[in-house]
């Protein structure tokens, strides 16, 4: 039976070797059959088919019906894929947690934890990483936004909110996207954060837990203050003293509620 390469790869990702994948594909057509029938349809040697079917039963791809001769029935693809997707997702999440812990423990030990990041795509990616590491709070001053950034930040900040992370955003009254003036407060209305509108310069800042931060700068077109993407640069900083200082300044501005524009 011929199938798309992606389907074949998916079966292998779920733990089936070549013979097992061929056997499962044959059984999806046969639905049920004897070892001899399955061997013929799958072109798997009969000397191997019994062991293969036994192993596949252990993995949950095949059910064995007792009798003479034994019959083997396929477990539906819907059940197989749902079960394995759940298992793979759990494995990936566990791997992500373990590797992230290793990464964060090592990166904090580097002698000069300040990096320059160029271009909107890489800057946004780093912002999302910072938000994902938040345990208590995120403070953002958004003097401007890149194209597509608001949607990505909304999704990541909403995920953080489910973990109990408090996010506060000082947003400029508007940002220019595709040469259109976009109301920042309106665009951020779906975000799980407290958003206030301030008259702030065209600079962006994000501080996480008073432990790490990034400042983002860009040049703007003189005609309509549109971001010039090639000029955008982020200064990612993991010096706690500096991050704490910026967090404190943010806190004082937030408490004084000034200078604010409704």
UniProtKB/TrEMBL annotation:
Residues 78-105 form a coiled coil. SUPFAM superfamilies: Phospholipase D/nuclease, Winged helix' DNA-binding domain. Keywords: Coiled coil. It comes from the Archaea. InterPro entries: TrmB-like, Tscrpt_reg_TrmB_N, WH-like_DNA-bd_sf, WH_DNA-bd_sf. The keyword Coiled coil applies. Residues 11-77 form the Transcription regulator TrmB N-terminal domain. This is TrmB family transcriptional regulator. It comes from Methanobacterium alkalithermotolerans. The lineage of its organism: Archaea, Methanobacteriati, Methanobacteriota, Methanomada group, Methanobacteria.
């Amino acid at each position: 039976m011929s199938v798309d390469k992606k389907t074949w790869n998916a079966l292998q990702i779920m733990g089936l070797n070549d013979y097992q994948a061929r056997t499962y594909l044959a059984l999806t057509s046969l639905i049920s059959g004897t070892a001899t029938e399955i061997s013929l349809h799958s072109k798997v040697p009969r000397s191997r088919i019994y062991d293969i079917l036994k192993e596949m039963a252990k993995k949950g791809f095949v059910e064995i019906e007792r009798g003479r001769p034994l019959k083997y029935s396929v477990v539906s693809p819907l059940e197989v894929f749902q079960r394995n997707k759940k298992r793979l997702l759990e494995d990936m999440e566990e791997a992500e947690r373990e590797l992230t812990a290793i990464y964060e423990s090592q990166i904090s030990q580097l002698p000069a934890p300040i990096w320059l990041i160029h271009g909107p795509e890489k800057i946004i990616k780093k912002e999302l990483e910072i938000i994902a590491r938040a345990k208590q709070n995120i403070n953002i001053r958004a003097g401007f936004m890149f194209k597509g950034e608001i949607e990505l930040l909304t999704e990541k900040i909403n995920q953080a909110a489910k973990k109990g992370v408090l996010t506060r955003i000082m947003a400029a009254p508007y940002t220019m996207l595709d040469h259109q003036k976009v109301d920042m407060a309106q665009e951020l209305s779906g975000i799980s954060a407290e958003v206030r509108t301030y008259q702030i310069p065209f600079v962006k800042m994000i501080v996480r837990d008073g432990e790490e931060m990034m400042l983002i700068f860009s040049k703007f077109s003189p005609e309509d203050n549109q971001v010039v993407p090639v000029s955008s640069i982020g200064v990612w900083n993991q010096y706690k003293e500096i991050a704490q200082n910026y967090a404190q300044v943010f806190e004082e501005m937030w408490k004084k509620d000034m200078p604010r524009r409704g």
